[in-house]
Design brief:
The protein is mostly helical. Helix content is 71%, strand content 0%. Helix 4 packs antiparallel against helix 10. The two termini are 49 Å apart. The relative contact order is 0.11.
Length: 321
Amino acid sequence: MYNVETRQNLELTKIATKKKRANYKQYIPLYLLALPAMIYLFVNNYMPLYGMKLAFTELDYAKGVFNGEWVGLENFKFLFSTSDAWIMIRNTVLYNLLFIIFGTVFGLTIALLFNEIINKTARKFYQSVTLIPYVISMVIVSYLGFAFLSSETGFINNSILKPLGIDAVSWYQEPKYWPLILLFVHTWHGIGYSLLMYTARILAIPREYYEAAEIDGATKWQQIRHITLPCLKPVIILMTMLALGRMFNSDFGLFYQIPMNSGALYSVTTTIDTYSFRALMKLGDITMASATGVFQSFVGFILLLLANYAVRKFSKDNRLF
């Protein structure tokens, strides 16, 4: 009896093993498909982690870039000992908060409006047109901005302000206009990406929900409030959490290229990234630039953990991990 049961168990084990092997083999094409992306992720995201060592060492080319003396947190002092420390941290954090709020509101609004377009061809055309700014380089955007804002040949001064009898504005010398200009450019540049994310989720909402709501006499606003927005909640939370993780980073092209690196605008355009870049160009010390990157990554990681903890408290199903 014992031998019979043992043989049956062995047979069942062999069958289960064969099934596992068969399941594994059927996924081999998918693994091969993902292999280039995994190699890219490893080379681009994990190999540079070794460079974090530079943030804690002294730069000494005679000993080799990675063989300098250990100096602890000495390289981080340049970020906080300068008189511009408050300005660059304030600008980085406040701009990112504005970008998160306006990006979310405008992205949602445009996605909801696009969802009301019945003609599929027209909707795809408008979505493609909206996405174009996202794929344009900030260098090109900066020259487009110059064509509008140049004090001598700019469209705004020559075609709008002068015909109205208003004095021309030296846009690249007046800091007070630039928070709004940068907010506008960032929203315009990224609206296509937000639209893509929200629209993909809206299209996944079962149409039966809306049909049932219409039968019950729900208005469009009630359908948006009670069906669309609750279904978009996971995407909104995910995108907000990822944005919070980049709170101490900034779009270098936006803050360096768009204002044309104008010194008169440093008080409103200097962020941690642009300040570090200028310091690197002036001092040539890559350990300070590495310290900046480590600081931004560490703070971003802490913010992401805190945001995930808060989401877990109030909406457990939408937590990131």
